[in-house]
Amino acid sequence: MALKEMRMKAIAAGERHCAAINSDGNLYIWGDNSHKQVGQCTPLLADLPAREQCERMDIADVYSLPVCVNDGGMLNINPPIKVKFTDVACGARFTMAVSEGGLLFSWGDAEGGVLGHGAEKVNCSIPTVVSPFDGKNRKSKVSIGDATVSVANNDFTVKNIACGSYHSVAITQAGKLFSWGRADGSQLGLGEGEQIEGFVDEDDYCVSSPHEIIVPSVSGWKQASCGEVHSCAVTKHGDVWSWGWGEFGQLGIGVSAERFPPGEGGVRSKIPRPSLIDPSNFEFSQIKQVSCGGAFTCALTEQGVLWSFGTNDCGQLGVPKQDIRQSDLPIRPNTLQFYTFTSVACGSQHAVAIDIGGKAFSWGAENHGQLGRLCSSKYAMDPPWFEKQKSGKWLTNSERASPEAVQSVSKLTIVQAACGMHHTMLLSDPDGENKEPTAEDSYPKPRHDALRPVVGDVSGSPAMPIFKPQSRLPPPSRLSHAGVHL
Question: What's the CATH code, domain 8-484?
């Protein structure tokens, strides 16, 4: 089934599979299905009996064409009803999706309790509702005088879902934050193992059902993201909290293995509870979005300024890896400081950001073509570790790590990006007009009163002055009119 004739409104990428939701709320998935992360979906072979079609699909390992999840009553829901989806996220080998009514569905590999269905390690090929986000807690009884009335309860009505490799985080309509899955790196933000109800799966502590992350000083959350073994979330007031494995500085709170004696950094840089990133590190700007990569993180302010922190071994922070190996505090990439961005997405070792003009910029590792450059890297795969250049330096897996515009889609208006482990998806607006950036739009003249030192520069060099772009608000969302190009 081709998607080019459809209008899509949301996309997601996992380790080896992809997902997209069209304007009608239909969810399409394709890619690796070895752990049922695509699922048992709408039959593709119309000339076969229905039972044989389903049997073939249930054992298929790869789907090279998108298949529809919610077409034909293939959801595990009672009573069977037509479901429209609003949000989707992909883990390493599992998938999560939110329905129009706030129900949360999950399917795929159940390892580590990532599906939220309990401790049983049973892969699920049919999207199944996750409790307590199954609609049974929608009403609360409230006493008013002598009467008892039912009122809407949005505490368990899911609004957004985010997936890491083996854990998930959900935000409800009431602004509450829940997490579940593997907890070996404290990526759930629930505390140490004995403090939460869980189980041990292959020496890793896991939580198989959603638990609320409670931070007394936070009244509500608006956005969250999950990395390999760390997580971040943004409050309604634009503050960023992070937790999990911080060995490479990916938490942005000034903690990394380098801060501790040799042999102690890995364990001591693990943060089991949410920790606030000092707002001064973002120049006191409110954050509207965070995106967690493998071992790095990007944050975007309400004014469209991009910040990054964590490992920089492939240039995924947007600066040359020769300049900064890693940063445990937010930094502003000099090459991107004059652009105003509306969204950012992080993969395992690469990132993609969309500017206010609808142009996509990519940087980081490109050894699998994930940056979308016209000229791919010299090496299609990582070179053997023992190979060296004549200069004695290790061969890199990326020759062009610095941020550049993706020229192959320069004539399109891009509205969203999704990064998987080694691949990228872009969502375009077919009705948009992508004009060439003007000096006023993308290269504002620096103001002398906007000079600021680089925050969190750990390269050992003197802080360099950077220019703060003028504040601009992003254009109205056009996702409802968007189409996907594959």
Answer: 2.130.10.30
